[in-house]
Structures are given as structure tokens and as C-alpha cells.
Write a structure and sequence with these properties.
about 160 residues, Chitinase A, domain 3, 5-stranded mixed beta sheet, two-stranded parallel sheet, 3 helices, 7 strands
């Protein structure tokens, strides 16, 4: 599974935070809730246990992603105007003229709000292999959208 260097650093930072801050905080909350007595009707205890379950699941997920990934340093890639993994692509919607910028990243680090799209997403699959000035047709839920690739760069 590919992962950018920045994405790997973000995942490691989240893992470190979960292990050193969140996990001990939840363990303390469970201990405090236990001290209140009857656990069967103790909402604080059940909420803390649920949060602990979420944290432990996320820790396992992050450890799996980090151990099974291939880290790619986008900054050391040869300069090219072709869209590949790690590329930051500026697109212009041929329908409404709006512009968007996306970086193509691994699934584990994808976050559309931050402009990071997964290499397996429909838009990334439509873009990979194309160059600046090319058009890409993307099958979206609202129908096919056409984008022109304005620029491609690697940060």
C-alpha cells in the first residue's frame, strides 16, 4: 500500500498521540467511573469503555497501515508533467469553470476536505497517466464530469 512521506508522518503522529495521551486518559476515566460503584447502570463507565474500544481499534488500524505500507518521498521524484502517485494536480471543471487542487495519495491518508484523494478513487484513476492540458472524464454520482488538467507538480 503506497503512502507519501508526509502521510506516514501524520499517521505516526496520530499513533503516538493515541498511545501516549488518549489511551492513558481513557484508562483514568474508566478507573474513576469504576469508583462510582454499580457498573451495570454507570453511563460514564460504558462511555469510557466504548471510547477505549475505539482507540484500541484505531491503534491496531494505524499499526497495520504503517507496517504494510511503502513510503514514497514525493519530493525526490523526478520532475514530470504526468499524473502519478503523489502528484498535486490543479483541475478546471469544463462544465462550470471551477478550479480544484488535489494531491493523489494512499488510501490511509486520503482526506477530501484537505485536498488529498485516494489513488483508488474514481477521479484519481481517471487522472493517472494523463499530462498537463489533457482532459479527464470522471464518472461521478451526478453523471460524468469533465476536467482539464491545468498543472501537475510534486511537493
Amino acid at each position: 500500500m503506497p503512502l507519501t512521506l508526509k502521510g506516514a508522518e501524520r499517521l505516526r503522529a496520530e499513533l503516538r498521540r493515541l498511545k501516549t495521551e488518549d489511551r492513558p486518559r481513557v484508562i483514568q476515566a474508566i478507573a474513576e467511573a469504576r469508583a462510582h460503584g454499580d457498573l451495570s447502570e454507570n453511563a460514564e463507565y460504558h462511555a469510557a469503555r466504548e471510547q477505549q474500544s475505539f482507540i484500541e481499534g484505531r491503534i491496531k488500524e494505524l499499526e497495520s497501515h504503517i507496517s504494510n505500507c511503502e513510503i514514497i518521498d514525493v519530493g525526490s521524484m523526478p520532475a514530470s508533467k504526468k499524473v502519478v502517485f503523489g502528484a498535486t494536480v490543479e483541475l478546471q471543471d469544463e462544465g462550470d469553470g471551477g478550479k480544484v487542487v488535489y494531491q493523489i495519495v494512499g488510501e490511509a491518508e486520503a482526506d477530501i476536505r484537505a485536498g488529498l484523494i485516494s489513488i483508488t478513487s474514481p477521479i484519481a484513476r481517471a487522472l493517472v497517466g494523463k499530462s498537463e492540458g489533457d482532459a479527464a472524464d470522471v464518472a461521478a454520482p451526478g453523471g460524468v464530469r469533465s476536467y482539464e488538467i491545468v498543472s501537475v507538480h510534486y511537493v
